[in-house]
Amino acid sequence: MSADPRRQVPRTDTLLADPRLADAGQRLGRALVKGAVQRVQQRVRAGEVSPEGAVDAVLAELPGTASSLRPVLNATGVVVHTNLGRAPLSAAAAEAIAAATGTTDVELDLRTGRRGPRGEAAIAALLGAVPAAEAAIVVNNCAAALALVATALGGELVIARGELVEIGDGFRIPELLESTGARLREVGTTNRVALADYRGALGPETRAVLKVHPSNFVVRGFTRAVEVGELAAALAGTGVPLVADVGSGLLRPHPVLPDEPDLQTTLAAGADLVLASGDKLLGGPQAGLVLGRAELVQRLRRHPLYRALRVDKTTLAALEATLRGPLPPVQEMLAADVEGLRARASAIAARLADAGIDAVAVDAESRVGGGGAPEHPLPGAAVSLPLEFAEPLRLGARPVVGYVEDDRTLLNLRSVLPAADHALADAVLEVAEKWT
Ligand SMILES: *Cc1c(COP(=O)(O)O)cnc(C)c1O
Asked: Which CATH architecture has domain 89-326?
């Protein structure tokens, strides 16, 4: 009877006292390690793990960090993938976050020892990159920027019907604006709006005219819109500010994305405030950027709601590093040329084919994603694998997310940095090895 594994299940205290598990407890927290210990004790009881192998089994169960979020290789070809956390941060931004994690001088002037303006350097970096702006603030995300504008300016907001946009996951900009108590005065039709429509809507209750970039769709055919410059000229002298939500956060015109609006051009064309996300095409942390006329920015900053929407020190650190540091991954991915992508796909496919895997390099289109340049496919290349790779790749130790097209699994390289090509191939090899 002494062979009964239930009698030999190591005690919780004994396991937790093992130096390797004690170390893990220091790093990950005792509760997390204890949970893994209890699961392994069950497996010993069931005879699946030997009592001597219990510590190793616990170590194998432990996650790499105390968070369950795992690094994923994005081979979807969608550069800014909302479900994969949008913009991957640059190494410079990640370092800046690590440095700002502890106590830091985010709101203290070390020269005088007195309180200083919060996030001053990040704001200065923004203004340096967008010289048409007089002032800027940073809030939690672009939705927060819209909510703050609608709340602080209040009253009636004039907006074109063709710009009543749903962004994704049921997030509708008009519903957000109305949730603040603001009233929307809709003008024009779904496909057409004219300057006269805006003019006719202005009244004593008007607090702002809002232009929202339809980031994830286009209207084609019999259409008409009013550009920022035209609207700004018509509003001049009325005292009604023009607020433009440009969405994706390009600071300047981008050669690869000629139709995507940018902050500098929109302000220079006459917008009083521009709003954008930090984690789309800018390639930085989740943030809502608000830039424009000093008086308006000041009004937003003084509003009590600003306090509820402001960002933390690590976001400010990452934003500054994104603006001042080397090109962030999103920008690198956008700039990648087709020939380079094809060469990388061929090299990976050759390595996999050498190992007996049915892998070939193919041309494949990719997308900006994250509500940017919806009708602008980017040319590129992918590694094409048999269909059955898709799921095990997603479930692997280093998850890879690709997509299925014509009964093949495609790993699109536009959204993978060259430095990760090796890891991508390794992940495929690991899946194939389990099958042989
Ligand atoms: C993406 C987007 C938003 C929402 O931005 P978040 O930063 O996700 O809150 C708002 N407006 C436009 C035009 C967008 O494209």
From this structure: 3-Layer(aba) Sandwich (3.40)
* Nearest alpha-carbon partner for 41 in 67, 20, 14, 63: 14
**Cβ 58 vs Cβ 21: under 8 Å:** yes
Q: Which atom of ligand 1 is nearest to the CA of 171?
A: 4
CA 399/CA 274 separation, integer angstroms: 37
Q: Looking up tokens 């040319």, which residue turns up?
A: 379
Q: Give, using CA atoms, the residue closest to atom 12 of ligand 1.
A: 247
Q: Which of 83, 139, 163, 167 to mutate to test the pocket of ligand 1 (most atoms within 8 A of CB)?
A: 167
Our mutation pick for probing the ligand 1 site, out of 82, 138, 215, counting the most ligand atoms within 8 A of Cβ, is 215
Region 405-418 average pLDDT: 98
Atom of ligand 1 nearest to the CA of 86: 8
Q: State the Cα–Cα distance between residues 161 and 147, nearest whole angstrom.
A: 19
Is the pLDDT confidence value at 307 over 70? Answer: yes
Ligand 1 atom closest to 370 (CA): 1
Given a cut of 70, whether residue 355 has pLDDT beyond it is: yes
The DSSP 8-state label assigned to residue 85 in this structure reads: T
Atom 11, ligand 1: which residue's CA is nearest?
A: 247
Q: How much is the pLDDT for 159? A: 98
Instruction: Compute the distance between CA of residue 342 and CA of residue 215 in angstroms, rounded to an integer.
Output: 29
Second-level CATH architecture of 73-83+331-435: Alpha-Beta Complex (3.90)
- Token pair listed for 391: 């799921």
**Does position 5 have pLDDT exceeding 60, yes or no?**
no
Least Cα distance to 430 among 386, 400, 387, 404 occurs for: 400
Phi, psi of 394 (to 5 degrees): -70, -30
Q: Find how far residue 107's CA is from the centre of its chain.
A: 26
Pocket of ligand 1 (CB under 6 A): 141-143, 167, 212-213, 215, 245, 247-248, 277, 288, 371
CA of residue 247 to ligand 1 center, whole Å: 5
Query: How far apart are the C-alpha atoms of 427 and 436, rounded to whole Å?
Result: 15
φ/ψ of residue 277, rounded to 5: -90, 150
Distance 143 CA to ligand 1 centre (A): 6
